[in-house]
Every structure is written in C-alpha cells, then in structure tokens.
Amino acid sequence: MLALNARLSVCARARRVKGVEMYESINEQVGARIKYLREKRLNISREEFARRLDISRPSVANIEEGRQNITLVQLMVFSGVLGVSFYDLLPGEREALSIDSLADALPAGTDSDVLAWVKTL
C-alpha cells in the first residue's frame, strides 16, 4: 500500500510539473507577443511602456520574458495600450474571418438587408 501511495504521489507531482511547464510556455508566448508589438508597433522602450501601463519597468520585463503571470484585466489593458485586440495577445493560430464566412455565420432567416450590408464590408 505504501508503494502504491508513493507511485500516486510521484504521478501527481509529474502532472503538476507538466501543468507548470504548460503555463510557463503560455506566459512566454504572451510575453513574446507583447514585446514584439511594443517594439514593432509602438517603437517604445520598456520604461515608456511601463509608464503608459502604470506598472513598473521590471514588471514589464518579467511579463515580456514569461517570468510573471498576467491577469485577464492586465491583458485587456496591455491590448488597449498596444492598439490591438485582446485576442491578438493570446497564443494560438487564429483564422482570418472573411466577409463570406461572416455572412455564412449569420443565423438562418437573417434579414436580407442585413446580409447584403455584411457583404459590402
């Protein structure tokens, strides 16, 4: 019984470690996106970015390097300062939404005037 408990404990630790690695990877990806957009879109220093965000420069550095967790509220603030969508900071591939796919996504029975307007976008 003791051996079984020890094996279960090792398995639980392994799952936690894998989970931590996953979160660290997400933090690194989000941080890299933030850093890229700060440098390429705004062309400002970490210090200026921190000032605009009303946080410390070391916090910006830690977030950009994936060493610090970022809250959803912070992501929203970062996206506003960067001038991008909240979703643009999240990891993963995003499929571009075409006007045709938008029109196709409208519910059945959508007014024909609305459908025509969507297609003019």
Which structural traits does this protein have?
disordered N terminus, 121 residues, 434 Repressor (Amino-terminal Domain), 0% strand, single chain, mainly alpha, 2 domains
Question: What do you see in this structure?
Answer:
The protein is mainly α and 121 residues long. The protein has two domains: 2-87, 434 Repressor (Amino-terminal Domain) (Orthogonal Bundle), CATH 1.10.260.40; 91-121, no CATH class. It has six helices and no strands. Mean pLDDT is 79; it is low at 1-16.
Topology (SSEs and partners):
Blueprint: H1 2-42, H2 46-53, H3 57-64, H4 72-82, H5 99-105, H6 112-120
Helix pairs in contact: 2-3, 5-6
Rg computed from alpha carbons, rounded to a whole number of angstroms: 22 Å
- Top-tier CATH class of the largest domain: Mainly Alpha
Shape: elongated
Mean pLDDT: 79
**Contiguous helical run count:** 6
Quaternary organisation: single chain
Within CATH, the superfamily of the largest domain carries the name: lambda repressor-like DNA-binding domains
CATH topology of the largest domain: 434 Repressor (Amino-terminal Domain)
Strand content: under 5%
Number of domains: 2
* Cα distance spanning the termini: 67 Å
- Regions with pLDDT < 50 over 5+ consecutive residues? 1-16
Q: Please give the largest β-sheet.
A: none
Strand segment tally: 0
Q: Which series of helices and strands comes N to C?
A: HHHHHH
How does CATH name the architecture of the largest domain? Orthogonal Bundle
User: Class by helix and strand content?
Assistant: mainly alpha
Q: Classify the helix fraction into a percent range.
A: 55-70%
